[in-house]
Amino acid sequence: MIEPITIGVDHGYAAMKTAHCSFPSGLAEYEHEPYTQKNVLCYDGKYYVVGSGRQPLQKDKTVDENYYLLTLAAIAKEIAYRNAPTTTPVILAAGLPLTSFGREKKAFRAYLLREGKPVSFSYEGISYETSVQDVKLFPQGYAAILQHSDLLNEPSVILADIGGWTVDIMRLDNRIPNAASCRSLELGMIRCLDEIGEQIRRTLGLSMTAAQMESVLRGDAVHINDDARKIIDRQADAYVHRLLSAITESGLDTRAMPAVFLGGGAALLKRTVSAADGLCRPVILDDVSLNAKGYERLTERLSKNDEQ
Question: pTM value?
Answer without folding.
Answer: 0.89
